[in-house]
Amino acid sequence: MDHSILNTKENIKNATVTRTAQIWLDEKEGIVMAIYTPGAEETLEDAESNVAVVEKLGMGKKRPIFIKGPHKSMTRDARIYYTEKAPSFLNATAIISNSAFVKILGTFLVTLNKAINHDKFPIQFFSSEEEAIRWLRTFVN
C-alpha cells in the first residue's frame, strides 16, 4: 500500500469503537475506514450506531468508505437500514474480505442497492486493500 492507513497508531487512537467495529476518518485520504470485529453479529441497533459515527465523521460531506470484515452475521433489518441510509452520507463503498459470509452478504447488498438506489451508489468488492483504496480515492471530493 502507498502508506498503510489501517492500524497506524494515529488512526487507532482516533477511532470510534462501537460494539461491532472501529471507525475513523483518514484525514489524509478523506476516506472513512470501518474495520469490523472478527465474528461480529450485527443488529439493527449496531447499524444505527455505526451509521451515526460515520455521519459524524463525514462532517456534512459525502465520503467513500472502506469496510473490512469478517462479519459473522447481519440481520435483515441492519442490511436494509445500511442500504437505505448510506447514499445520504457516503458516495462509494469498497468491501474487502476473504470471508464466505461477507461475499454472500455483499452480493445481497449489491442487489438490494440496485433495487433501492437504482445503482447510483457504487459498491465494489476487492481482494486487495491497496486496490480498494486506489478505487475509493476516485470518489474523494
Protein described:
There is one protein chain. The chain has 141 residues and is an alpha/beta fold. It has a single domain (9-137), classed as 2-Layer Sandwich (Transcription Regulator spoIIAA), CATH 3.30.750. It has helices at residues 9-14, 44-58, 76-85, 100-117, 129-137; strands at residues 16-17, 21-26, 31-36, 40-42, 63-68, 71-74, 90-96, 123-126. The strands form two sheets. The protein has a six-stranded mixed beta sheet, sandwiched between helices. A two-stranded parallel ribbon has the order 4-6. A hairpin with a 4-residue loop joins strand 2 (21-26) and strand 3. Helix 2 runs parallel beside helix 3 and helix 3 (76-85) crosses helix 4 (100-117). The longest helix is centred in the last third of the chain and has 18 residues, at 100-117. It is globular. It starts with 8 loop residues before the first helix and ends with a helix.
List keywords for this structure.
141 residues, 6-stranded mixed β-sheet, 5 helices, globular, alpha/beta, Transcription Regulator spoIIAA
